[in-house]
Design a protein that fits this description.
single chain, 209 residues, two-stranded antiparallel sheet
Length: 209
């Protein structure tokens, strides 16, 4: 029988993993940013981390405990499913922010120069539903259909997903990133998804450099 993880220690490990990856990237690549847009992005990101990210991790770990000693390799095999599900979810929640009255809640993210701190610069509700939702949704689905996911692989995925989000907001090609999301910031009418950009490709909103 697998050992269930459901303690504050595990919650903090996940949160610290995310914070170290995120603010480490901000520290390394945003050191020359002094604009008001940058300072606003830092304030909003901190607010979202404290008011949304941490409480969400606490609730998620409370209701979706994960094994730490089993399901290691099966969890690795589920990574492509997570990428696809997150991509589709993010498109479905991101696209309306550009096409409806919801733009007023999203436009802050597109204000000023693109930099790493912009990654999670968002309205609280947008961050909860769009950013966190796209990450947590696949795991909630796994829990609903009784698929166990290894806690260690989960935290590794937290690190990878956080770093990927930061790299996509560097504003230039780096670390294998082709600048696809940067084009979204430049034109505002393309590349609404993430990862494989599946719905963008299907619906004709995908654009490459």
């Amino acid at each position: 029988m697998s050992i269930q993880i459901n303690t504050m220690f595990d919650t903090m490990m996940t949160f610290i993993t995310h914070m170290v990856c995120y603010w480490g990237m901000v520290w390394k690549y945003d050191t020359t940013s002094k604009s008001e847009s940058y300072r606003e992005a830092v304030r909003n990101s901190l607010k979202n981390h404290i008011c949304c990210t941490l409480p969400s991790i606490i609730l998620f770990n409370e209701f979706s405990p994960m094994p730490v000693s089993t399901h290691f390799f099966s969890s690795i095999c589920l990574i492509p499913v997570i990428i696809i599900a997150s991509d589709v979810y993010f498109f479905l929640t991101h696209y309306p922010l550009h096409k409806t009255f919801l733009w007023k809640y999203h436009k802050t993210h597109h204000r000023g120069k693109v930099h790493v701190a912009k990654s999670l610069d968002a309205d609280l509700i947008e961050h909860l539903i769009g950013n966190l939702g796209s990450f947590i949704a696949p795991f909630i689905l796994f829990h609903m259909i009784d698929i166990s996911f290894n806690m260690i692989i989960y935290n590794i995925w937290v690190a990878i997903a956080t770093l990927n989000t930061c790299v996509s907001h560097l504003g230039y090609k780096a670390f294998g990133d082709k600048g696809i999301h940067n084009l979204h910031h430049k034109y505002l009418k393309c590349n609404y998804g993430t990862g494989f950009y599946i719905l963008d490709r299907l619906l004709g909103t995908y654009k490459e450099i």
